[in-house]
Amino acid sequence: MPQGAQTMQTTLGAPSAASIFFFFVIVVVTLAITYWAAKRTKTSKEFYAAGRSVSALQNGLALSGDYMSAASFLGISGMVALKGYDGMIYATGWLVGWPALMFLIAEPLRNLGKFTFADVVAFRLQQTPVRIASAIGGILTVLTYTIAQMVGAGNLIKLMFGLPYLWAEIIVGVVMLAYVLFGGMIATTWVQIIKACLLLGGVTFILLLGLSQFNFNPADLYAKVAQTYGQKALEPGGLVTNPLEAVSLGLALMFGLLGLPHILMRFYTVPDAKAARKSVLYATGFIGYFYIIIPVVGFMSSVLVGRDLIAKIDAGGNMASPLLAEALGGTALLGFIAAVAFATILAVVAGLTLAGASAYSHDIYVSIVKKGHATEQEQVKAAKIATVVFGVFAVALGILFKGQNVAYMVGLTFSVAASANFPALLMSIIWRRFTTWGAVAAIIVGTFLSLGMIIISPTVWVDVFKNPTAIIPLRNPCVISMTASFVAGWLVSLMTPDTGAQEAFEGEKLRVYLGVGAE
Amino acid sequence: MEQAKVAGKGEVRAHKSVHEIIESPDFKKLVSTRWTVSIILLVLLFVTYYGYILLVGMNRASLAQKVGEYTTLGIPVGVAVIVIAFILTAYYIFWANKSYDPEVERLKGQLKP
């Protein structure tokens, strides 16, 4: 037991037979599913929305898969392992967006939309300006998230398999493009479902195996943690000191979810609003369970592996869970968990690519360039070209940002999403007097204010650009940029009254609340 | 769909236009109830989550109290935040299935085919 912890040897970083075996099994199975999905992906509705045939449970799993990224699996367990209780504060924040998504937009989104969230915002407004603005907000959100995922992927694969960074980026890019390009949303959904099951199953297995050493009593585990690292490890530390900062981060985590294009897109894959609602409940359950057990896994690795070794392998603690797997189940379990982490990244990047590609091909090409009169063939072709372009961009950005600390980019993405996309989305659903230019103002102000404020904040201005002091002290801009987006949308709408949009609100309401005419 | 027809029968024989439905007290009540439920649940979510965050930020000692031999109050409270968030979500589903959906079907049944 823990006695051996300090002297534990690890094979992490060297490609072991077990990790390569599990990695190939996962890739072969997911590619086989892609082949099967490809035969069912002919129309744009199948490509973007899996033919709206995904069940509530399947969508719940796929949503969980999209949301439970490697950053949360490895990052939070590592944070708990090294810093103790503070990691748990972080974990709770990642769940609270889901109830908010349910209460505010899940059903209207399903009833109003077709393929992208821009369909909802542009429903009764002028298509061209709103779709251009939405595509800008959507693509920038997806890109920042993609950079964080790709850089994380490269580092992770390097650490786990000993593969060079460049190769890791290219493998992720090629496999992920195969999923999206040939299997569209059907394949992407199934890859997410498999990944979610593997991740939940794998972490549960580690949890049970680890708890068996503590008589299945978490109190025994906490006792061991306190004996080893002191009572401080179980108390809140210095993570939250500035309440304004904490509230701003909380707002970003909560409402950022409501503006993430790759999450919103999943609501068009279910048959109706009732299924959309149920899928949020499933997702909340799976994700809630995940965030409850992840801190326990973190505490276990701090005593069974030891903080010294965790910090030696990776200063950020990201390897805490894989090391715990190795301590408990040897190379085989490590190989399995490494492969699951890899699948996690592949699946999330695939979802992001599909969302980024659809923002261009559906909102810009089909709706604006072709004025909505594209044939099915043209639509799918445009989507596939956009997918390849986005995939190449993702790999290029991953290589360009090599070596950068991109942990801040996940937080950044949530701030941008909460400021750029969410206010316009909510106002278009509930406010009769919302106008085209109000929507454009809300999106543009939210996007660029949040990005600009992040650049001059300590996170980027000091930590990345190495300036001595930041121009603004706030690390997370959400509380200001999201409010500004709402105010801009409100003021500009009042200045540009649009009777046509107000009249069309009746039809929109019928569709939002009764589902009449929903796709 | 089947249910809609059954619910629509007997109650209202004359079908209503879109405008009449939108302006009907029943529809207005449906919309206002939906948002009242949503806002109440959202406020409960805010109180739960920000209550926790502000407690961590302003009164750390309260969460450092021991509830077991070593276990601190912060651990069950953190888990409770997640569980409450799930319960609020589940309550919304329960309410929507029980009250919202039947009313939607009834109103849809009144709509001119």
Break the fold down into its secondary structure elements and pairings:
The complex is a heterodimer of chains A (519) and B (113).
Chain A: H1 17-38, H2 44-49, H3 56-67, H4 70-83, H5 86-93, H6 97-104, H7 106-112, H8 117-121, H9 127-161, H10 165-211, H11 218-229, H12 243-256, H13 261-264, H14 273-313, H15 320-369, H16 376-400, H17 407-420, H18 422-430, H19 436-455, H20 458-462, H21 478-495, H22 499-514
Helix pairs in contact in A: 1-10, 1-15, 3-10, 3-14, 4-5, 4-14, 4-15, 5-14, 6-12, 6-14, 7-14, 7-22, 9-10, 9-15, 9-16, 9-17, 9-19, 10-14, 10-15, 10-16, 11-14, 12-17, 14-15, 15-16, 17-19, 17-21, 18-19, 18-21, 19-21
Chain B: H1 2-8, H2 18-23, H3 25-58, H4 60-64, H5 74-110
Helix pairs in contact in B: 1-5, 3-5
Structure commentary:
- The complex is a heterodimer of chains A (519) and B (113).
- In chain A, 65% of the residues are buried.
- Chain A is mainly alpha-helical and 519 residues long.
- The longest helix of chain A is centred in the middle third of the chain and has 50 residues, at 320-369.
- Chain A is built from 22 helices and no strands.
- In chain A, helix 3 crosses helix 10, helix 9 (127-161) runs antiparallel to helix 17 and helix 18 packs across helix 21 (478-495).
- Chain A has helices at 17-38, 44-49, 56-67, 70-83, 86-93, 97-104, 106-112, 117-121, 127-161, 165-211, 218-229, 243-256, 261-264, 273-313, 320-369, 376-400, 407-420, 422-430, 436-455, 458-462, 478-495, 499-514.
- In chain B, helix 1 packs across helix 5 (74-110) and helix 3 runs antiparallel to helix 5.
- Chain B is mostly helical.
- Chain B contains 5 helices and no strands.
- The model of chain B is unreliable at 1-13 (pLDDT under 50).
- Chains A and B meet through helix 5, helix 6, helix 11, helix 12 and helix 14 of A and helix 2, helix 3, helix 4 and helix 5 of B.
